[in-house]
Design a protein that fits this description.
It is built from 3 helices and 2 strands. It has 213 residues and is mainly alpha-helical. Strands 1-2 form a two-stranded antiparallel ribbon. Strand 1 and strand 2 form a beta hairpin. It starts with 8 loop residues before the first helix and ends with a helix.
């Protein structure tokens, strides 16, 4: 429903200013939406690449575990696994993309020294060390995948929000303001015509009155 506006020159000027502001806002929001969409596809591709590599890495890790099983008993593997268990330290850095906070997760997996890994190099075989290394890489890649999944969800949410605002401006607010502007301009023209006609009538009346004197 169209808002009722006073048919004045001042009101017409205000409406025009609101249209200019809404048009600029619409343009900026479209640019933001496009930038977010580009970032979304960039991260989506990265996520697919990581997932593909993770699948390959998982197969390698399972194969390495099978080889380690041939050289170590189940008891040895379980003992080393329990000794190696620890809370992983993760540093969270934030990247700001058009107002969206994208996390960057950095773990300490690759930088952990052997003493903190829970086993001795001299007490293990190269097959077991390879197995542990493969699974550490799996864990690190899983962390990278989680990072991209979080980013994708946040970007989708912001893209949808921005699209709603763009559509609201494009299909509701700006057309409504345009309609108000046309209505005020039409009423002002009517008032101007009415005033002009009234002046002509008054002028003729005055001329007739002068003619009678």
């Amino acid at each position: 429903m169209t808002e009722q506006s006073n048919p004045t020159r001042m009101e017409l000027l205000k409406i025009k200013e609101r249209i200019t502001l809404a048009t600029k806002g619409h343009k900026l929001l479209k640019q933001k939406r496009d930038a977010l969409i580009l970032e979304f596809f960039k991260i989506l591709k990265k996520s697919k690449d990581i997932r593909s590599k993770l699948n390959v890495k998982m197969k390698n890790a399972y194969s390495a575990l099978a080889v380690a099983n041939a050289y170590h008993s189940a008891f040895e593997l379980e003992a080393i696994s329990l000794a190696n268990a620890r809370i992983m330290d993760v540093d969270v850095q934030v990247k700001n993309v058009m107002g969206v906070k994208i996390p960057h997760l950095i773990s300490d997996i690759e930088t952990r020294p052997y003493p903190s890994k829970g086993y001795s190099i001299s007490g293990t075989t190269s097959m077991l060390e390879q197995c542990i290394e493969e699974y550490e890489q799996v864990l690190d890649m899983a962390l990278q995948l989680a990072e991209t999944e979080i980013a994708i969800k946040r970007l989708i949410s912001e893209i949808e929000k921005t699209k709603r605002r763009v559509n609201s401006l494009e299909f509701i607010m700006i057309p409504r303001l345009d309609e108000q502007k046309k209505m005020i301009a039409f009423k002002l023209d009517e008032l101007e015509r009415d005033g002009f006609i009234s002046l002509k009538v008054i002028k003729r009346k005055l001329e007739r009155e002068r003619g009678l004197l």
